[in-house]
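<derive_structure_tokens>
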Amino acid sequence: MRILDVGCGIKKAPGAIGIDRNPASAADVLCDLDRFPYPFADSSFDGLQAVHVIEHLADVIRAMEEFHRLVRAGGRVRLVTPHYTDFSSFCDPTHRWHLNSFSFRYFGERHGGFGYYSRARFREISVHVKLLAFWRMLGLEFLVNRFRRFRLFWEHYCCYVVRGKVLEFEFEVVK
């Protein structure tokens, strides 16, 4: 499988092709991640990962469209980003976006009524929310991840008390 590791930094995924803008990274290809298109042909990857990258990019929608362009139909896109209630979301001055577990609904089948923002479509395979250790020990992380309606309730009413830590998304590219 051909995997693209976007913003690979110094810990590029084994066997992946890494792209980053930092010459001190382990990137195979150096490019500005805010300038599109990236230097690869359409549908040239089976999968893509962007671990703690999407929150740094200037345009989330355009980045998702580029990820969609690069990955073949049925391929997987994996994103990891801080939850907007986590301290790390705001302590890094290079973070431009503060996201929650429903931030990528625009690209889904139901698209939250906002499907006109982009034609790129992804099928949500999984969303995993990591909570701070105390809440995980109490079983709240299990509830947030097991029941979508509970996750929605948590995002709307509880997440400033029961803070999120990290969001992990996996999507299937729909073309």
Observations:
- The chain has one domain: 3-130+167-174.
- Strands lie at 3-6, 17-20, 29-30, 45-51, 71-82, 121-131, 164-174.
- The first strand starts at residue 3 and ends at 6.
